[in-house]
Amino acid sequence: MAGGDRAMSFLSALFGRGSAASAEQVREPVEYKGFVIRAAPYKENGQYQTAGTIERGIDGVRKEHRFVRADAYATYEDAVNFSISKARQMIDLQGDNLFQ
């Protein structure tokens, strides 16, 4: 296995997905109703997968909910926008129950 292949394999295993995530693809966080949304789409099969995290401090403890959805987009920007929209919808529907 070539050095680059090993590095890609390591990153894939580290992030737990088929494609390695890169730091430049994690957007600035978005605050919404006291929650912090971090959109983090990743490339899979030629498209960008809807994914990210929702975070909130509860009783001094940082809670995090990771999500990946089946929706995929041709452009990274579209995937970011939908990831943020989906996270807002999840917050509106579930609130703090996301962390149970």
How would you sum up this structure, described in words?
Helix content is 32%, strand content 36%. It has 100 residues and is of the alpha+beta class. It has one domain (21-99): Double Stranded RNA Binding Domain (2-Layer Sandwich), CATH 3.30.160. A hairpin with a 2-residue loop joins strand 3 (42-44) and strand 4. The radius of gyration is 15 Å and the shape is elongated. The model is unreliable at 1-15 and 17-24 (pLDDT under 50).
Compute the gyration radius: what is it? Answer: 15 Å
The figure for the number of domains is 1
Show unreliable segments. Answer: 1-15, 17-24
Give me the CATH fold name.
Double Stranded RNA Binding Domain
CATH architecture: 2-Layer Sandwich
Compact description:
By secondary structure, the chain is α+β, with helices and mostly antiparallel strands.
Task: Chart the SSEs and their pairings.
Elements lengths: L2 H13 L14 E3 L2 E5 L2 E3 L2 E12 L2 E13 L2 H19 L6
Antiparallel strand pairs: 1-2, 2-4, 3-4, 4-5
